[in-house]
Amino acid sequence: MKLETEFVKLPLLFDVERLRKEIAQFSEDEWMAHTTGYAGNMSIPLISLDGEFNDAMHGPMKPTSALARCEYIRQIMTAFDEVFSRSRLMRLEPGHEVPPHCDVNYHWYNRVRIHIPITTTEEVLFYCGDEHVHMAAGEAWIFNSWLEHTVKNNSDKTRVHLVVDTAGSTRFWDLVKRGDWPFKDSQQPVSESHVVRYEENKPVHVRTETYNVPLVHSPGELENLISDLADDIECSNDSEEKGKQTFVDVTTDFVRAWREVWSEHAMKPGGWPLYHDLVQRVDKASLAITPELLLASNGFELAQVFRSLVLSSAINEEIAPQYLDKDEVPNTLQETIRSYSSEKENSGEKVARNAPCPCGSGKRYKQCHGRIETSQA
To answer: Which of 41, 180, 262, 348 lies at a C-alpha separation of 20 to 30 Å from 95?
Structure first.
């Protein structure tokens, strides 16, 4: 998410010893390799798709069995009283780093990540844009993930953070205003830090996202995303001005065509092939956007961000089976989604083993039609 500054330290403190006790219970085998394959980066999912051990960002989020074992972490989440998306324990091995990158996909457009360091040293540095900080154990930080960022563990100790993702309520953003903005003046004085203490057997209620990406983006949503990018284009010469106009022309036609299909089909499966055709067409047209056309906010290529933020999230029919027989999908769509899922299954299309089974059972593919039977000797 774009922030007005690189880092904000929230006015909160946490019980480090209790947090360390809770992470100490996990065995080495329970730490998953990073989904990108970054060396030295490991995680344990606490909130995930259907509460299973995965790194998915879209679909109904639920607490995992790992979170059930962490009483204080559940109390922390309850204290925030936010609706949480994918959340994890994240480990960075000594001498390793999180490679420089910029979060420009749809998930991060409206979500911020809260970091609560558990084990760390002063040699662990978090870089964002042109600034860097050391996040001390027991603190809570957020950062501008729209800017290029990286983490370097220059110590001989393992770093572990609790990281929770949320869009943030009005209460949360009021808390941010009262935090410490080390590289920019805050809108109001820094509040005294509130200590969130561990209390044995304290009632908890962890709220999680149910609906976080639409089956099909509405024309208004697409228009908003594209308009934000158009306003962000940095032009320093006539050539780039022409490139910006090309982008505006191409995307204006895209939204108009999308609205035509939406007016007839909305989210119904009958329109899905038409939406895909529009995405493919504008993707080809976007090749005319030159690599020199950059965003002023983070210096990244416009075409690259457009594909990641807009095109990759415009239609998401793969999540449809996750909502079968649930209130999130209208009854009028249930049968058509079930038919679509059956067609996918019968077509022999390859399905990831941790993905929802296309038959619509609600189970993972590996636990349903992708189940591997073993013989008994």
So the answer is: 180
**pTM for this structure?**
0.85
CA separation for the pair 237, 107 (Å, rounded): 33
Determine the pLDDT at residue 287.
Answer: 84
CA pair distance 321, 362, nearest whole angstrom: 7
Strand order in the sheet with 131-133: 97-101, 149-153, 124-128, 131-133
Model confidence pLDDT, tens digit, residues 200-247: 999 999 999 998 988 899 999 999 999 999 999 988 888 789 889 999
Give the HSE-up count for residue 319: Cα atoms under 13 Å, Cβ half-sphere.
23
Contact, 124 vs 152, CB < 8 A?
yes
Amino acid residing at 168: G
Q: Which domains does the chain have, with CATH numbers?
A: 7-208 (2.60.120.330), 219-315 (no CATH), 318-367 (no CATH)
Please report the pLDDT score of residue 35 as a whole number: 77
User: Helix axis angle, 302-309 relative to 219-231, nearest 10°?
Assistant: 160
